[in-house]
Structure to design on (274 residues):
């Protein structure tokens, strides 16, 4: 099976592999959902005042970034795409800035795939077909057409904002006590919605700077818990799009930070390389 990944959402979480009979549908690209909000540029400020305000806004955006050494979780993944929907269970182990380990299981609890991702490589074992694949991060960037790296991937999994940029071009508080922040980077325009009281991330919407790509991603963050000493979103809804559609719900059933972890990954000699 050719490796592919869900664009933005679960970027390498599934790597185009299915832990059960139907999970292969996760490989399909997705279509955009309209979550556009309106922001107003502050034009009546001095240069120094505007810069100071942008710095304060950026601090708000990053104030709840989770800082950790290790992370592990059990996640229920539900998805709905152009060919239908299904669900799977993902077990995740992550050592920050080093390695991510995934075990993907179907409804009966049978492990279908095991994945090991480092800063420069991705290894995938198909336990059902007794085969494996070895890929570089560069290869995955090429086929997904995304400028992601290991840091982006781990932030996506943990729930930190991805593709943030200090180039804030507008911001506005709305009537729902939310702060809307629009930043523009080299690749993406990013509209972030924060709870204006807690600075918790509520919504993230990414659109290509290059309008011809017509690519967008929408991530909603809800059901925050504070059992680890900092807020963690246990439910997320992800929609990503370019030519076809996929919506993904993530429900974190269990999670832990800063506990010792192992990353078992040994390819049996009888497995065939694909």
């Amino acid at each position: 099976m050719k490796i592919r990944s869900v664009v933005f959402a679960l970027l390498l979480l599934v790597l185009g592999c299915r832990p059960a009979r139907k999970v292969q549908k996760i490989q399909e690209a997705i279509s955009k959902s309209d979550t556009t909000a309106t922001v107003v540029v502050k034009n009546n400020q001095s240069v120094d005042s505007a810069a100071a305000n942008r710095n304060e806004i950026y601090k708000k955006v990053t104030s709840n970034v989770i800082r950790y050494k290790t992370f592990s979780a059990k996640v229920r993944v539900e998805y709905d795409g152009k060919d239908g929907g299904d669900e799977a269970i993902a077990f995740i182990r992550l050592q920050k800035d080093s390695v991510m380990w995934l075990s993907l299981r179907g409804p009966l609890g049978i492990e279908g795939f095991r994945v090991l991702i480092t800063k420069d490589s991705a290894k995938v074992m198909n336990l059902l077909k007794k085969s494996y694949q070895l890929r570089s991060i560069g290869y995955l960037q090429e086929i997904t057409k995304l400028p992601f790296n290991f840091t982006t991937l781990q932030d996506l999994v943990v729930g930190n904002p991805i593709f943030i940029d200090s180039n804030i071009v507008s911001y506005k508080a709305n009537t729902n006590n939310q702060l809307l922040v629009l930043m523009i980077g080299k690749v993406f325009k990013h509209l972030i919605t924060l709870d204006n009281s807690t600075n918790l991330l509520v919504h993230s919407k990414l659109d290509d700077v290059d309008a011809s790509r017509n690519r967008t991603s929408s991530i909603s963050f809800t059901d925050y818990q504070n059992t680890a000493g900092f807020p963690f979103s246990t439910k997320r809804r992800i929609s990503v799009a370019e030519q076809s559609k996929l919506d993904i719900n993530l429900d974190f059933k269990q999670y832990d930070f800063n506990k010792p972890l192992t990353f078992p990954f040994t390819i049996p000699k009888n497995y065939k390389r694909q």
In short: The first strand starts at residue 70 and ends at 81. The first helix runs from residue 47 to 62. The chain has one domain: 23-258. Helices lie at 47-62, 137-144, 150-158.
